[in-house]
From TrEMBL:
The keyword Repeat applies. Residues 1-13 have a biased composition (Low complexity). Pfam families: Ank_2. InterPro entries: Ankyrin_rpt (IPR002110), Ankyrin_rpt-contain_sf (IPR036770), Multifunctional_regulatory (IPR050745). Residues 280-293 have a biased composition (Basic and acidic residues). Keywords: ANK repeat, Repeat. Residues 1-23, 280-301 are annotated as: Disordered. Gene3D superfamilies: Ankyrin repeat-containing domain. This is Ankyrin repeat domain-containing protein. ANK repeats lie at residues 203-235.
């Protein structure tokens, strides 16, 4: 039975609803939201039994014109979901219900065990205008949660329905989340659907740097084989080569991780990468010579 991927820590700091329509909130809103989070990330999306938790009934979350759609979602009635979603305007389709829960995230909760019906419901909502990048407080967006699932089928359903693979919610490309996975299925799917492998965030980092920082060394190799550019410097003067050197030094001598990092270094040096890399201070001095202020955020793409 699928389980959520374990979170990974970075290795280096490198509404318009009428109040009469809104369902009453349970006491302890923050605790309830966390409870919904456990459900969303465990019991429902990934089919894991979290202390017998169940998805709250549609009537507890939605009201008014959203309620029939939420009920159809809960029952897995794909054709009815398509019809009802098409009848709502986009703002209504994306308007949060109680506890800031959206219809799309509610559908994600009901996508038990990668069942085709649940995936079709997700696609129907996105095709009708539901926003997979809209965040639910403390839970994230439907796209973000799909990228943390073990199976890429949820992400594929969102992409098939219109999610932009090159999107960067909060100026962070989806590909960055994808390369945190142990394997490359999510990253491969995003690249296949049009994500740019060398797209940077406002710090000037790319997915390649992100994979290295998260010690996804097989993914680093995989990205390099697919055209990821290693010769760049972020806004703080940290180059990919500099980060690679840092990671090599911090490993235990002779460890598998260090051997892998050294092999990556040797291949890149053979391709012309400067080694040893310039220091951070030297890179910042070069930035100033080019008229670039170190630490200044890049414009959003």
């Amino acid at each position: 039975m699928p389980t959520p991927r374990a979170p990974t820590r970075c290795c280096r700091p490198g509404d318009g609803m009428n109040e009469r329509e809104r369902p009453p909130l349970a006491a302890g809103a923050q605790g309830m939201r966390r409870w919904l989070g456990l459900i969303a990330l465990g019991a429902s999306l990934l089919g894991v039994n979290v202390a017998g938790a169940r998805v709250p009934a549609a009537e507890r979350i939605f009201a008014g014109e959203q309620l029939p759609l939420a009920q159809a979602i809960a029952r897995g009635r794909v054709d009815e979901v398509r019809r009802l979603a098409a009848a709502l305007d986009v703002p209504t389709l994306n308007r949060p219900g109680a506890q800031d829960m959206t219809l799309l995230f509610f559908a994600l909760q009901h996508a038990f065990g990668e069942q085709p019906t649940g995936l079709q419901v997700l696609g129907a909502l996105v095709a009708a205008g539901a926003d997979p990048l809209q965040p639910v407080p403390e839970l994230g967006s439907a796209a973000g949660v799909s990228l943390r699932a073990k199976s890429p089928l949820y992400l594929r359903a969102l992409l098939d329905a219109g999610l932009n693979a090159d999107a960067a919610p909060g100026d962070r490309p989806l590909l960055f989340d994808a390369v945190e996975a142990q394997g490359t299925e999510f990253a491969a799917l995003l690249l296949e659907r049009g994500a740019r492998i060398n797209r940077h965030d406002r710090l000037g980092n790319t997915a390649l740097m992100h994979a290295l920082t998260y010690q996804r060394l097989d993914t680093v190799d995989w990205l390099l084989e697919r055209g990821a550019e290693p010769e760049f410097v972020n806004i703080n003067g940290v180059s990919f080569a500099g980060q690679l050197q840092f990671q090599i030094v911090r490993q235990q001598d002779g460890s598998p991780a260090q051997r892998k990092l050294l092999a990556i270094r040797d291949r890149l040096v053979a391709r012309g990468l400067r080694w040893p890399p310039l220091s951070r201070d030297s890179e910042q001095a070069r930035m100033r010579e080019r008229g670039q202020e170190p630490g200044r955020l890049l414009p959003a793409e």
